[in-house]
């Protein structure tokens, strides 16, 4: 991972979570066994089971962290002065997160999507969190777009919400489309180009 420090710190509990997270990304939740995790940590079974007694428990804690770290977005620091400045801050945030979870050779890890899909099936509460996150993201984009329309920055027959969805769906669609084959730099460049294309169509 492109981080200077471990995702979860360094004690035994965090070692387990770090190790399991890496294995889940390299394979998948269903392919990784408890024995795989125990062996990869180098801990004894007794030490391991002191912290976690099932793979599901390990996975749930990883997903809770992963959701907050990569899918929860704090819009507080985003510029609201213009739609494009908001886009720039959004793209910067996406780039930081993509680089953090890319392989050391700069290729996206494909299994981050399968981890999310598995989590929504295993933990119903996670599905609810995802839905709420999506609602907040849509609200933030719609608000900025409404302000941009009011200021005369943009004009379009589309509604504010429809425009917001263009940016949101473009972002996630590009991620899924490119994740199986793209270098990180290529993915981020394509995302920026598409955002710019949408913005230019809207700009007065």
From TrEMBL:
Pfam families xref list: TetR_N
Protein name in the entry: DNA-binding transcriptional regulator, AcrR family
UniProt entry tagged with the keyword Disulfide bond: no
Species of origin: Flexibacter flexilis DSM 6793
Stored InterPro entries: DNA-bd_HTH_TetR-type_CS, Homeodomain-like_sf, HTH_TetR, Tet_transcr_reg_TetR-rel_C_sf
GO MF assignments: DNA binding
Assigned keywords, A-Z: DNA-binding, Transcription, Transcription regulation
HTH tetR-type domain residues: 10-70
Signal peptide: none
Known DNA-binding region: 33-52
